[in-house]
Amino acid sequence: MIEELMKQLGSEKVSMNETELTRHSQDESCHPGVEPAVICFPESRSDIEIILQIAQEQHVPVTAYGAGTGLEGGSIPVHGGIILNTERMKRIIDFSPEDFTVTVEPGVTRKELNESINKHGLMFPNDPGADASIGGMVSTNASGTTAVRYGSMREQILDLEVVLADGRVIHTGSRAKKSSSGYNLSGLIAGSEGTLGIVSSITLKLHGIPEHTIAARCTFPTAKACAEAARLVLLHDIPVMRLELVDAVSVGEVNRFGGYQFPEKHSLFFEFAGSKKTVEDEAGLVEELMRDAQCEDWEVAADSLERARIWKARHELSYAYRHTSGKEVLGGDVCVPVSRLPELVDYSRELAEDAHMKAGVFGHVGDGNFHTLIVYDPKKPEEQKKAEQILERLAIKAIDSGGTCTGEHGVGIGKKKFQKREHGEALEIMKEIKQLFDPDGILNPGKIFE
Amino acid sequence: MIEELMKQLGSEKVSMNETELTRHSQDESCHPGVEPAVICFPESRSDIEIILQIAQEQHVPVTAYGAGTGLEGGSIPVHGGIILNTERMKRIIDFSPEDFTVTVEPGVTRKELNESINKHGLMFPNDPGADASIGGMVSTNASGTTAVRYGSMREQILDLEVVLADGRVIHTGSRAKKSSSGYNLSGLIAGSEGTLGIVSSITLKLHGIPEHTIAARCTFPTAKACAEAARLVLLHDIPVMRLELVDAVSVGEVNRFGGYQFPEKHSLFFEFAGSKKTVEDEAGLVEELMRDAQCEDWEVAADSLERARIWKARHELSYAYRHTSGKEVLGGDVCVPVSRLPELVDYSRELAEDAHMKAGVFGHVGDGNFHTLIVYDPKKPEEQKKAEQILERLAIKAIDSGGTCTGEHGVGIGKKKFQKREHGEALEIMKEIKQLFDPDGILNPGKIFE
Ligand SMILES: Cc1cc2nc3c(=O)[nH]c(=O)nc-3n(C[C@H](O)[C@H](O)[C@H](O)COP(=O)(O)OP(=O)(O)OC[C@H]3O[C@@H](n4cnc5c(N)ncnc54)[C@H](O)[C@@H]3O)c2cc1C
Ligand SMILES: Cc1cc2nc3c(=O)[nH]c(=O)nc-3n(C[C@H](O)[C@H](O)[C@H](O)COP(=O)(O)OP(=O)(O)OC[C@H]3O[C@@H](n4cnc5c(N)ncnc54)[C@H](O)[C@@H]3O)c2cc1C
Question: What is the pTM of this model?
Fold first, then answer.
């Protein structure tokens, strides 16, 4: 298989270097690493076709690897085989500012994309914090801090080019903003975590860069009170750009990690963006709402430096936890109807406290989506066990509350066990679709389904 | 088969009455009618299960029928068999104003839904003009005048309950606003025109009713100039509520139909909605843009009566054409990247004029989606032929311009012939999915695929 790959791709696109094998055994999750047999670095769609053809002929698993920032082990090659790393596919294939669209290869990262289009007054808003690849973001249906305004990745997609397991290449859409023509394959491939095909190009909607931005924060006595206050903003249909909950423990964590001095209290972080007048109105209205909800303080960032600092801190949060020396973290990613949010946030804090585990609760509360990070000592298996139990109870409660076990990180390895409970009979249909697209099971086996 | 239906459903839910057979042979399109063998009126999900079971056992086609307002013959039972009419399924199963969600049975119409929720300050914005059923709107992925702001039906769906051909019942989502859990079946069923399953309940996102609304209109010397002006509004990222093009011929048509006195010129109709201040700013900005683009006039509706009149007229437009006595209409529904819109609008006017056919061009230009209605005399087959040729050339040009042959009406019967050109290899995948969901081909056979 490796000889064949070298012959057909050229040896410079194939690696079995030790460092590369180690790097590709893991993503940013704490699922146990597994080394692939070989790593391929396709430089074009036809390279991807060659890799899939060889894999198909020789019955070898192929796991796509974007930037490896996934949090559910999606790109860990649990059954070995080939890693297909898209990092050399960084071309911007088409940029049409007049249509607000761009077509990119899957290895382009979110920041790279924005660097090349921001100067034209346009932006790609989807922001998971990490500098993920566009191919990876499509494949996990990523969202992040701005989804409250723009929706998840799925809503940004106009067209995908996908190489299927049997070598066929399809386009799932067009450059039209909407369509009622045929079945919606874009939405099906988005979020399928490389189990139905390899995404070889992506056409995305873009947005104008807002003229004016305001950042603000306020604190409340409990995390539950924060969640309740966040709901008020939604009820008033205010199109906030970002609306994040960060609990007191997490504020402390990020203060220490990044040298900030935010008050170590349960906080809401806001961003408003649009025309100057509109944004000022919105911020004013939200301040009123927060004061009515009895926030302890309300602070608007004095300038753009201060504003950048707030969001830098928010984005460092997850890293702050993940890089506590000698510790590991396990994370939850539930999403529930907003009316259940205060209760769920409370429940997750309670579970952690009852178990005497250090835990942070934060997330995209504007969507009813939040993360619970539990810190444990990897040398103490009983701690890991306890962390797992907490997250399991939380996921189950979220599903039973009409929500989902994963709002944005994907199923990967960690959320497989909740799929039956969440989807019921529909899980069988999903398996049949998997079987249809990939009858030999070469595409990222061991993910999503048990 | 009919005996079995009567026995299991009860005879009051089964009809072979002549008037009913005629009514169900047609939708609002001009595709030739075909009578079903029998019409069933299920009153619950379990009735739907019974119907599908009998159809499956006896290999009889089942075609779902919502309000019959479809424009592509989607609900015409071209192979006879059973019509499954959802008009008795009108329960609001759950209304959660605190979550902005509602769960309804498929026979509830758009207006009925709004009547029952508007008093709580909430609305369901999707508006195809006709009083379609929610089940039908899901199944064609309908959109209409407000899609420029809220997106198509697919974007409004949180969860669908679907009865599959083999009798299994699945839920495709949850009540959470977003999810990365498993494959996106909601999006797949939406727009599948009753060919993959029967939708038995729908959970939708709702929105707050805007505090303030402004309607305005302006005219330009050419339809192309209207389309160019519409693009300007999009480039400025102004969240208009509605943005419609109506060409001069169509304004004339609606004036005569409804007794209006709008200037019979190529026009843009606008609606702005939100907080009072924001809306006034938006309308002011758009007025400036339109004047810069050299509109001939700019008129803001003086009061809410005048505003209602403008949108009533816009909604009557399609009916105005469709009810010209002794005439029939054939309609196009292309959607293209907005930069191609002026050219396509121009092309469609040109095609009609060259063929000396009376035609109107109007539509949701904020999405790049417009309709071309060609009026012909059904007693002159050569006229119908010419109308078909015009729409065929237009659809092909739209596809070749990176667009789609149907932005919102669906494929039904009329757009089948363009599917291969538009989807290429992906059409095979769609057929395989159809085969997977409905191996015996009992669900709405003869639609979408040749
Ligand atoms: C600090 C931190 C914060 C984060 N915050 C968020 C957040 O707020 N919101 C959020 O949604 N996520 C968040 N994430 C998770 C992560 O950034 C996303 O899941 C992202 O989408 C992963 O992209 P990637 O390029 O790193 O993909 P990878 O991790 O490399 O892969 C992810 C999955 O996609 C598949 N895949 C990758 N490329 C392709 C392709 N071309 N074709 C088919 N399949 C492919 C892989 O096989 C795998 O299953 C965060 C991660 C970190 C480390
Ligand atoms: C004057 C006029 C203006 C219009 N303007 C617009 C517009 O602006 N935008 C737009 O999108 N449409 C428009 N339409 C078209 C029409 O209103 C839409 O296509 C609407 O979605 C059809 O809904 P219905 O309930 O009438 O469905 P039907 O016409 O009864 O059925 C449509 C399709 O859905 C299937 N179906 C119905 N119910 C179910 C179910 N429960 N489960 C599975 N399949 C089902 C049917 O089999 C059929 O294939 C217009 C129509 C008219 C007459």
Answer: 0.96
Torsion of CA A46, A50, A52, A58, to 10 degrees: 180
Q: Which of B142, B168, B405 is facing A181, going by the closest CB pair?
A: B405
- The CATH topology of domain A212-317 is Alpha-Beta Plaits (3.30.70)
Q: Where are the domains of chain A?
A: 2-85, 93-208, 212-317, 324-423
End-to-end CA distance of chain B: 27
Q: How far is the CA of A209 from the centre of ligand 1 (A)?
A: 24
Flag whether residue B141 sits within 8 Å of chain A, measured between CB atoms: yes
Strand partners, B363: B245
What is the third-level CATH fold of B324-423? Alpha-Beta Plaits (3.30.70)
Q: What is the pLDDT of residues A199-233, one digit of tens each?
A: 999 999 999 898 899 999 999 999 999 999 998 89
CATH class of B2-85: alpha beta
* Cβ–Cβ gap A433/B183 under 8 Å: yes
**Confidence class for position B174, pLDDT limits 50, 70, 90:** very high
Average pLDDT on B74-84 reads 98
* Cβ of residue B194 lying under 6 Å from some atom of ligand 2: yes
Is A163 in the B-facing interface, judged by CB distances under 8 Å? Answer: no
Q: Which-ligand-closest: CA of A318? A: 1
Residues of A in contact with B168 (CB under 8 A): 425, 428-429
H or E, element range at A199: strand A198-205
- Beta-bridge mates of residue B40: B14, B84
ipTM: 0.96
Please report which helix (H) or strand (E) contains residue A135, including its range: helix A134-140
Check if A2-85 and A324-423 are the same fold: no
The verdict on domain A93-208 having CATH code 3.30.300.30 is no
